[in-house]
Amino acid sequence: MNQEREELFGFDEGEKAAWGAGVGGGGGGGEGGGMSKEDMDRVNYLLSRRGKGSGKGTDNSAAFYESFDGQGVNEVGVGGDKGLADMTHIASDGSGNTTFKMVDTSPKSSTPRIATAEAKVLLPEAVNEVFLTGGGRTAKGNVFDVSRLAGIMGAKRTSDLIPLCHNIYLDKVDVKVTYVQEVGTVLIKCTSVTVGKTGVEMEALTGASVAALALIDMVKGISPEVTYTVRLLEKEGGKRLVRDGKVVGGV
């Protein structure tokens, strides 16, 4: 149960310790008896500081919460020591309210930018067998053609899907879908190109992801066990140069 909880919530070390304190220890905290009241309070407090729980636990004792302050809990939750006022996309108006904003790129000059993202779709045996015999065709139609078209459409809608992403004029989107039958994998590469003030890596990543999801939708009737991963493969223009998924230049 501990491992399942950690995978589900992504606990940090303090949260793991809070869960662990209630398992196999005193106070009725074994797996069979559940967590003790104090340990549950500690867990709920930690989760509340990361926006994952009610923060109430089983006891609203102010003394309890005050005693737990300063024990490795990050006040912001992300960004290390940065306060909200220092963040570029999320800020505080000084009255306890959080505001959101797009970064102002108006002072920047337009430059050529290109990015390529790669999605790897892992096929279960049932889907791989259909592809081997049908060349990518199923009862729904040509899976690869639909995937390519979906990738282009997805890249064009990136700013609608990613909340604070800039609306970029795309000069080119190219989606390549390659079936590697020996390992039961489909490789999808989405390349996006623009001349603009900010990069197009999110457009490439979104295009590759949507292409992969469209492929999964086309074959889910054969098997729902398809999985995929996605990564930025190359990026040029802007602050960083990326090759084969690694930053090789820039700041």
UniProtKB/TrEMBL annotation:
GO molecular function annotation: cyclic pyranopterin monophosphate synthase activity; GTP 3',8'-cyclase activity
UniProt pathway: Cofactor biosynthesis; molybdopterin biosynthesis
Any one Gene Ontology BP term: Mo-molybdopterin cofactor biosynthetic process
Database matches in InterPro entries: MoaC, MoaC_sf, MoCo_biosynth_MoaA/MoaC, Mopterin_CF_biosynth-C_dom
Ranges annotated as biased composition (Gly residues): 21-35
Protein name: Molybdopterin cofactor biosynthesis C (MoaC) domain-containing protein
Compositionally biased region (Basic and acidic residues): 1-16
Sequence segments annotated as region (Disordered): 1-38
Keywords of this entry: Molybdenum cofactor biosynthesis
